[in-house]
Design goal:
The structure is a single chain. The protein is α/β, with parallel strands linked by helices and 247 residues long. It has a domain of 127 residues: P-loop containing nucleotide triphosphate hydrolases (Rossmann fold), CATH 3.40.50. Helices cover 35% and strands 24% of the residues. The protein is built from nine helices and ten strands. The strands form two sheets. A six-stranded mixed β-sheet has the order 6-7-8-3-9-10, with helices on both faces. It has a four-stranded antiparallel β-sheet with strand order 2-1-4-5, with helices on one face. Helix 5 crosses helix 6 and helix 6 packs parallel to helix 7. The longest helix has 18 residues. It is globular, with a radius of gyration of 18 Å.
Length: 247
């Protein structure tokens, strides 16, 4: 069973309002690295938020990790969402907390309600967090507050949190948009390397054509809320990509 199956997905943010997503059909599976392209307002962020359960689509079928996301109860949705990592452009970290505490946030979905509320983690969770921090090259920063890190280091913390979460699907919403070219390459290598080693699915919103060409095996393009291309990265020309990005 594919990790992600979408059929005729639609979404509007308000009743009788404009349709943000229209008739989206998409199937994706383990180990794929998919670049999601499209101009601002094309529906990329809305699609990612539907997949991770932050938004309930207006219509259509959305199966994530074998479960129909729109039909799940809150508790069942929580169990699915703990296996979906989300990496944001603005990092979405807690600046006042240390690196290791931010990484441990990825374990909250596996911790009981009371222990989650008190941020009480098992020894095994700490050991896992230390390993994830080492994996992203931040050994020695475990007890540094996130507010004291550079942008690239913060994104590494976000990736470590996602790895600690045991993510089978990783969604990136312009995750490298605010980073310099060298740091961007480092982050993309980390993400694609994790996908290859773990079999996770990566679906990454990307504006940079060169990045999409070098790191993605598949491109999905949205225009006006509609899917206009879904195929191999070498099956779409730079001109077509530029039109999708309105550049």
């Amino acid at each position: 069973m594919p990790l992600l199956e979408i059929h005729d997905l639609e979404h509007s943010y308000r009743r009788n309002g404009p349709t943000v997503l229209q008739g989206i059909n998409l199937t994706a599976d383990r180990g794929e690295v998919i670049g999601l392209i499209g101009r601002s307002g094309a529906g990329k962020s809305t699609l990612l938020r539907c997949i991770n359960g932050l938004i309930t689509p207006t219509a259509g079928k959305l199966d994530v990790l074998g479960s129909s996301m729109p039909d799940l109860s809150n508790s069942a949705r929580r169990l699915v969402r703990r296996r979906i990592g989300m990496i944001f452009q603005e990092f979405n970290l807690i600046d006042r907390l240390t690196v290791i505490k931010n990484v441990l946030v990825g374990r909250l979905g596996y911790t009981g309600t009371v222990r989650s509320a008190l941020h009480l983690f098992a020894r095994s969770d700490f050991e896992l967090a230390y390993g994830c921090i080492e994996q992203v090259g931040l050994t020695g920063y475990e007890w540094t507050r996130v507010r004291d890190l550079s942008g690239g280091q913060k994104q590494r913390v976000a990736i470590a949190r996602t790895i600690a979460q045991g993510s089978q699907i990783i969604l990136g919403d312009e995750a490298t948009a605010n980073l310099d070219a060298r740091t961007t390459d480092d982050i993309m290598r980390l993400l694609t390397g994790y996908a290859q080693s773990s079999g996770a699915l990566l679906l990454l919103s990307i504006h940079n054509l060169d990045l999409a060409r070098r790191y993605c095996s598949r491109i999905v393009a949205l225009q006006g809320g509609k899917l206009v291309y879904d195929g191999a990265v070498d099956g779409i020309s730079d001109q077509e990509m530029l039109r999708a990005l309105d550049m």
